[in-house]
Amino acid sequence: MSKTTATAKPSFKIRPVQKEDKSGFVDIFNGPKDSYVLFRTSEISAESSAKVFDRFMDSNVPAYCNIALVDYNEEEHTHFPNRRLTGTDANGQDEYVIGCATFLTHVNIWSGKDELYLSDLFVSEFNRVKGVGKD
Q1: SS3 for the chain, per residue?
Q2: Could you give the CA distance from residue 92 to residue 25 in angstroms, rounded to a whole number?
């Protein structure tokens, strides 16, 4: 009989991206390892990645981004040592970006109601299949 171990769901939070998250966002979006751009097998310059982030900060552009943050984890840091810390939470715990969802809002031409269009959803490899993308 084989023994199976349950994988614990990581303790993460999801919130809108903020100015202070730029380095963490750019890393998860277009970093050298385990990034959205690499996952898509695409290429984009660092300058263009920064412009993507800047659009989320521009209140005149209806493009938005939520990020998933997790407290510093020694095991994940071993797998992805280049992952940039984005800051600290209210308890002083280091945290970093493990995923992002980018989306747009627009008016539905049929109903006249606001709608949301999910553009991109990415979760770091180490944190996939743990419920991060569902929340």
Answers
A1: CCCCCCCCCCCEEEEECCHHHHHHHHHHHHCCCCCHHHHCCCCCCHHHHHHHHHHHHCCCCCEEEEEEEEECCHHHHHHCCCCCEEEECCCCCEEEEEEEEEEEEEECCCCCCEEEEEEEEEECHHHCCCCCCCC
A2: 20
How many residues can be counted in the chain?
135
For the chain, residues with pLDDT lower than 70 are 1-10, 72-93, 129-135
pLDDT at 60: 93
Alpha-carbon gap, residue 50 to 47, rounded angstroms: 5
Centre a 10 Å sphere on the Cβ of residue 128 and count the other Cβ atoms it contains: 13
Domain count, the chain: 1
State the Cα–Cα distance between residues 14 and 112, nearest whole angstrom. Answer: 29
Q: Which two tokens stand for residue 81?
A: 């040592």
CATH number for 78: 3.40.630.30
Is position 59 within any domain? yes
The model scores a pTM over 0.70: yes
Q: List the structure tokens of 64.
A: 């938005």
